[in-house]
Design brief:
The structure holds two protein chains of two kinds. Chain A has no helices and twelve strands. By secondary structure, chain A is mainly beta. Classes of the chains: A mainly beta, B mainly beta.
């Protein structure tokens, strides 16, 4: 079974609008971490935001927030006030610290911000 | 600034000619990873080092080897590159405590490998 599922291969958003990128995960561990990365066309993977499984509050980092719904096993990324520079691939990832050091990545969502 | 550095950023090699990609970090992280990423795909983990312990993924071809001479440096050796090995190679680091942790993984800028 896929550990991380991103069902939106491509998304479009108007500049200055908010957009939600979906991510669902599969784990039987109680302790895990969820991450979002941005990968522009240059190729570098840029860390955006982290949510721990025991965190009760949704994580926020500037214009990025993570909508964490533990019972649904979803960790959607919300980008507010989209900018042209937000156009990139976005990857959701999970780490299960007690079952190894591996990060599991989803297949990514390509976001295009339209002026 | 603490960071993950990869050299070179672009590498061109010939079919079958060995090539080495390098990664260094100033984060003092104990775990280092090598990923292969092909166009429009998720990064695929090749192997990782937890300190000096080498962990190979089951489906990583023998053609790919790695060395970690010290905490700061890690190398990816491709012994006989094929056309299918053309990809972006990403190095990443993270910190792993003995009790387990969910520390973030930080990536370098990647090396884009072309095989002629």
């Amino acid at each position: 079974a896929q550990k991380i599922t991103q069902t939106q291969p491509g998304m479009f958003v108007q500049e200055k609008e908010a957009v939600t990128l979906d991510c669902t995960y599969d784990t039987s561990d109680q302790s895990y971490g969820l991450f979002w990365y941005k990968q522009p066309s240059s190729g570098e993977m840029i860390f955006l935001i982290y949510q721990g499984s025991y965190d009760e509050q949704n994580a926020t980092e500037g214009r990025y927030s993570l909508n964490f719904q533990k019972a649904r096993k979803s960790a959607n990324l919300v980008i507010s006030a989209s900018q042209l520079g937000d156009s990139a691939m976005y990857f959701c990832a999970m780490r299960e610290p007690f079952t190894g050091n591996q990060f599991y990545f989803g297949t990514g969502t390509s976001l295009t911000v339209i002026p | 600034d603490a960071m993950v550095i990869q050299n070179p950023r672009y590498q061109v090699t010939q079919f079958g000619k060995p090539v080495t990609l390098s990664c260094s970090q100033t984060l003092n992280h104990n775990v280092m990873y090598w990923y292969q990423q092909k166009s429009s795909q998720a990064p695929k983990l090749l192997f990782h080092y937890y300190d000096k312990d080498f962990n190979n993924e089951a489906d990583t071809p023998d053609n790919f080897q790695s060395r970690r001479p010290n905490t700061s440096f890690c190398f990816l050796d491709i012994r006989s590159p094929g056309l299918g090995d053309a990809a972006m190679y990403l190095c990443a680091t993270s910190r792993m405590g003995t009790s387990g942790s969910t520390d973030t993984q930080y990536f370098g800028p990647g090396t884009r490998l072309t095989v002629l």
